[in-house]
User: Which sequence fits this backbone?
């Protein structure tokens, strides 16, 4: 089922909408860049994938995919600045935003999101896909483009280049910790208790601090639109509504040679943007080795911008010209 959500139509310039949240008895105004979009629902075996479709439905979109514990709101400020001749579909990954949680007794794993892309292609009957991914989804776009090189016609990755490499000790210790955490979170979910609730300003600050201040205080509100609910027990308070089991998600545990082989297999036009105030999330020698392999692809572009890990959300004007030049080159009007 496709549910229409009415917002002001943007043709050339982003407009502004005011959304108001109650906080400690006061009302706060939130300015949001908007563009006409539809809330969509895509069926999957365990429920639905939710998303925001910007632009004409008859045009195959660029598919935007967010980072770990974020949601489709991560592209709220960038979407209005993208080329108007193309559509853009920003989706909530399972357990995030408005998408269904995975069934009880299951765990989240990075490879699931690679399969999500294939499900999306099947649902819309696409032979090719254009991907824009941030962080966790930049990693998964890299993996998808390597596993299915003939199915990707364009890939934009933001800030995390590839699956990070960990030492053997980090992998073993991390798996043990995450499996134990999974059981602990399952027990909490089974109790049916509501997560801790916070005043609006405190909720914003917790998200800001929890991202290591990567998401600015103002930008937190774009993510919270799809990531919180009002408490049923404490008036004027809100809780994080994403699946808590995401905190114990299982990530790729790959040998250094695997991302190198993946990089060799990516043949599509590939743009990667590195935020210079963000960490590399692994030893830089591993990052540099994969970057060198990617640069053997004549369709690969590499850019660096000043900003945090969420620069695309906080300061979209820094990345939009780079992304638009790339898109217009490979998916022109």
Assistant:
């Amino acid at each position: 089922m496709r549910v229409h959500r009415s917002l002001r139509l943007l043709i050339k310039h982003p407009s502004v909408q005011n959304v108001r949240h109650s906080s400690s008895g006061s009302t706060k105004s939130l300015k949001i860049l908007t563009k006409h979009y539809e809330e969509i629902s895509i069926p999957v075996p365990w429920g639905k994938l939710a998303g925001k479709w910007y632009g004409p439905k008859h045009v195959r979109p660029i598919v935007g995919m967010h980072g770990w514990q974020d949601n489709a709101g991560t592209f709220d400020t960038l979407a209005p600045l993208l080329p108007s001749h193309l559509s853009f579909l920003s989706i909530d990954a399972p357990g995030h935003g408005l998408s269904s949680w995975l069934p009880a007794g299951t765990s989240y794993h990075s490879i699931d999101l690679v399969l999500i892309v294939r499900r999306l292609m099947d649902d819309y009957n696409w032979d090719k896909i254009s991907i824009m991914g941030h962080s966790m989804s930049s990693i998964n776009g890299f993996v998808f483009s390597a596993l299915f090189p003939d199915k990707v016609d364009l890939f934009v990755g933001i800030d995390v280049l590839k699956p990070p490499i960990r030492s053997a000790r980090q992998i073993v210790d991390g798996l043990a910790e995450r499996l134990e955490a999974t059981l602990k979170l399952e027990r909490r979910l089974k109790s049916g208790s509501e997560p801790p609730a916070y005043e609006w300003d405190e909720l914003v600050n917790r998200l800001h601090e929890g991202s290591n201040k990567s998401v600015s205080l103002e930008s937190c509100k774009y993510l919270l639109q799809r990531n919180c609910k009002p408490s049923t027990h404490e008036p004027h308070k809100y809780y994080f509504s994403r699946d808590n089991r995401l905190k114990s998600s299982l990530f790729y545990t790959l040998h250094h040679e695997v991302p190198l082989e993946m990089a060799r297999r990516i043949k599509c036009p590939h743009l990667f943007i590195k935020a210079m105030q963000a960490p590399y999330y692994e030893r830089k020698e591993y990052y540099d080795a994969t970057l060198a392999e990617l640069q053997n692809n004549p369709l690969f572009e590499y850019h660096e911008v000043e900003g945090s890990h969420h620069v695309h959300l906080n300061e979209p004007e820094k990345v939009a010209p780079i992304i638009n030049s790339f898109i217009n080159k490979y998916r022109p009007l």
Summary: The longest strand covers residues 15-23. Residues 78 and 316 are 5 Å apart (CA to CA).
